[in-house]
Amino acid sequence: MTQTRPCIGVFDSGFGGLTVLREMIRLVPDADYHYFGDTARLPYGSKSAETVSRYAVGAAHFLEQHGAEMLVIACNTASALALDSIRAGVHVPVVGVVEPGADRGADASRDKKVIVVATEATVSSHAYLKALQCRGIEAKEKACPLLVPLVEEGWIDHKITEEVARIYLEEAFSDGFQRADVLVLGCTHYPLIKPLLQRVVPQHVAIVDSAESTAAVVAQKLRVSEPGKEGKPGLQFFATDSVEKFQRLGARFLGQPIEKVQLVKLSE
Amino acid sequence: MTQTRPCIGVFDSGFGGLTVLREMIRLVPDADYHYFGDTARLPYGSKSAETVSRYAVGAAHFLEQHGAEMLVIACNTASALALDSIRAGVHVPVVGVVEPGADRGADASRDKKVIVVATEATVSSHAYLKALQCRGIEAKEKACPLLVPLVEEGWIDHKITEEVARIYLEEAFSDGFQRADVLVLGCTHYPLIKPLLQRVVPQHVAIVDSAESTAAVVAQKLRVSEPGKEGKPGLQFFATDSVEKFQRLGARFLGQPIEKVQLVKLSE
């Protein structure tokens, strides 16, 4: 790992991983970031483990070939279903979002009861459940398939989104989990509705955002002693579908305009 | 075209096309149907024309190679964006869903004002707008990106779905289209919420379902004189992702259990 200006590859099925990139830029601005969004094949959240692995390994190869010295799998589904395959397929360190989120969630829970909201595929993998159980936490996972399309529709502070979140979270905070005191956001789209979710969860609940937790782990691995102090990030974006849509939707997730996106074709 | 027992290939990005298949089985039961759902790469509705064309042509080849004598593109997005490419790529007749839906919509409108609801990609293509304008109809297209995930969540008679539909349709039936008297369902997921939509639209509005219209065109092309009279359909299903999920979700769209699904890998 270079001590000077690292090149970090960031991978997601689409735009959600840009919330992780945004946090990394904040903590480690003095770095080059190559972001790869596999937008032609999104969403991964409803696909099988085998398919997600095949797609994710292809993207990881692309980023490694383009100079990444570290890979951040900024996609909960790919981290949950394909992290071992990706690690086996590349020669650089790989950081997923599940372990950092589970670490932070476990630390934050006094009652040792945590709820994780995520996509259907992430929940089916039980990656968060296993990671939290290893840390002595009783965990419950809740799939919230409508939250990603609601965020992508731009309804991030909309009464419908709040009602949908209320339905999902009432189901989650039940059956022995009424006193859960931490909600882990196990999908990189969800940080955009964190203020809305904060209104919906019981007052005693802390929300853990795996984008923030992952960025902190990356900063630590890069041995950045004073996060966010200086430097201007180099940003390159690659997408497998419409670059116009990537720029338009992506800016919402990144929190800043996206100047240029390169269209990439990957063979399966 | 065989006069006895035809083999019809039906293609969709996922499950929605099963509403078209259901109607075809009802009208033409004495046929073999090969249904191909490109579930590994769904949804097409948010992807670019080029990507949709590449995927759809690959699937059309697969169905032709497996004996289809006619192809039904039971996917609005693929019909809107890729019908010419598919026709150029295969040697059998190809029926899309846009033209039959536009025909039926034009016939049903006395005021010559029609609203079409569809996915983002179908709307961006303006395929329905053009098809309806050619038939002397003033048309307005409205993208409703949340309706597909709501149907897939199974919320087909849910107050949230009704509220979302109300928001979309209030926007649609405005700006000179208050008196539109036909709503064309330009997405094969929407027939599942037809009763709900009927409650939301103004009373004078007729709903045209492109699944029904397309099945009628297929029956006509096959010169079936007495639709639905006899025969037992042969059904084969192919999917590019989880066969378990295809069986589970697909049954809702087809209206009957799906016994067996074959997993298929397509190269890009």
Question: Which features would summarize this protein structure in a list?
Answer:
homodimer, 268 residues, alpha/beta, Rossmann fold, six-stranded parallel β-sheet, four-stranded parallel β-sheet, 10 strands
Explained architecture:
The structure is a homodimer of 268-residue chains. Chain A starts with 6 loop residues before the first strand and ends in a 5-residue tail after the last strand. The mean pLDDT of chain A is 93. With 268 residues, chain A is of the alpha/beta class. Chains A and B meet through helix 7 and helix 8 of A and helix 7 and helix 8 of B.
Radius of gyration of chain A, taken over Cα atoms and rounded to an integer in Å: 17 Å
What's the structural domain tally of chain A?
A: 2
Assigned CATH class of the largest domain in chain A: Alpha Beta
Looking at the chains present, what oligomeric state does this protein adopt?
A: homodimer
Using a beta-carbon cutoff below 8 angstroms, give the protein chain pair with the largest interface and the number of residues from each chain. A-B, 27 and 27 residues
Order of helices and strands of chain A: EHEHEHEHEHHEHHEHEHEHE
Described by strand count, sense and barrel closure, the largest sheet of chain A is:
6 strands, parallel
The chain-level structural class of chain A is alpha/beta
Named CATH topology of the largest domain in chain A: Rossmann fold
> Helical segment tally of chain A?
11
